[in-house]
Amino acid sequence: NKRIAPDEKIEAFELDYDGKRDRWNGYDPATYARVIDRYEARDEARRKYQKEQQLKKLEEKNNNPEKGEGDDSDGDDDDDEDALKVDEAKVDESEQMDFAKVEKRVRTTGGGSTGTVRNLRIREDTAKYLLNLD
């Protein structure tokens, strides 16, 4: 207990008006390079995982006796890319299915909104608080 000192290092800065309000004061670009490296590593791991999943699907498909397609080992990269594109197309189609629904207009007078209306009133109806007046 002989050398007791605070852990913080106190620095005195002599900054002018603009220096105090500089949002990039103390910014180190090397830290951003680390962030970029981390995201690139994550994306690479994601691509590797997706490729492994696609290979598993292809192996299951090839090992399935019902299909009877045989082994397609040449050009696996092209097959993987095609499978990814097909999966993306399926997702796009499923998202577009929601927009393809044609719903009847419900209680609209001049075009108004479409969709399901539960307890909403249109402008011409009397308000609920005016109904039970004696």
TrEMBL record:
Assembly notes: Associated with the spliceosome.
Taxonomy, superkingdom: Eukaryota
Keywords: mRNA processing, mRNA splicing, Nucleus, Spliceosome
Organism: Pinus taeda (Loblolly pine)
Protein family: Belongs to the SLU7 family.
Location in the cell: Nucleus
The protein, known as: Pre-mRNA-splicing factor SLU7
Basic and acidic residues bias: start-end ranges: 44-70, 83-106
UniProt region (Disordered), positions on chain: 44-116
GO BP terms: mRNA splicing, via spliceosome
Compositionally biased spans, kind Acidic residues: 71-82
All copies of domain Pre-mRNA-splicing factor SLU7, residue ranges: 15-134
Regions crossing the membrane: none
GO molecular function: pre-mRNA 3'-splice site binding
Annotated GO CC locations: spliceosomal complex
Record's function text: Involved in pre-mRNA splicing.
Main location group: nucleus
